[in-house]
Design goal:
It contains eleven helices and eight strands. By secondary structure, it is α/β, with parallel strands linked by helices. The radius of gyration is 21 Å and the shape is globular. The chain starts with a strand and ends in a 5-residue tail after the last helix. The structure holds erythose-4-phosphate. Erythose-4-phosphate (E4P) binds next to helix 7.
Length: 225
Amino acid sequence: MSQIFLDSANLQEIEEALGWGVLSGLTTNPSLMSKEEEPFEFLVKKICSLMGENPVSVEVLDTKAEGMVEEARHLAAQAPNVVIKIPMGVEGLKAVSRLNRKEEKIPCNVTLVFSVNQALLAAHAGAAYVSPFIGRLDDIGWDGVALVKEIVEVFSRQKITETKIIAASIRHPRHVHEVAAAGAHIATVPFRVLKQMAGHPLTDMGLERFLSDWGRARQEEGIRP
Ligand code: E4P
């Protein structure tokens, strides 16, 4: 079954969404973290504790492999469920392969993936997750869902099973069901889209009619609803 992660660093959103019982993990990024008032490390620890054993992706800010590895070690020490988000690129690949060595084994999520080849390299470097950004591809007139389908097919043919595909940069509910149908392991969804997924105008209208029919019948029987 494909999983739902929340794409957020907002504590209120996280607590609310956790209450729905649908989340299997969470992703953040520097843009999302920068919107929050809490200090960075406090936020990382708090989010990780709210998420229990579920994975929480936190992104490094250094752009060189050495610095990424140092930052990753520091972040990984904050909580047992931290996954290190590493931007795609040569420096990122070096960092992922180093963090994946068996004496360390810090799980990485390679982010900002826009092609099958980038996803393949990330998998070969030992990434636990790859994150193709589908909304940003759609924004420039490409087809983000098609990329997810291709990665799913290539990983399946190549028997790549250790790297999970997270469909990221989700813009609307249709993206979520399309990437699930395409076979993505995970969709990381902003809270706004998660709320849209739960609703439907016919559900609201249907409930309104059920309740008013029931109320009318009770009144006709002379019983207070
Ligand atoms: C995923 O891990 C990213 O945080 C996120 O999905 C980016 O989405 P955006 O394109 O809406 O910024």
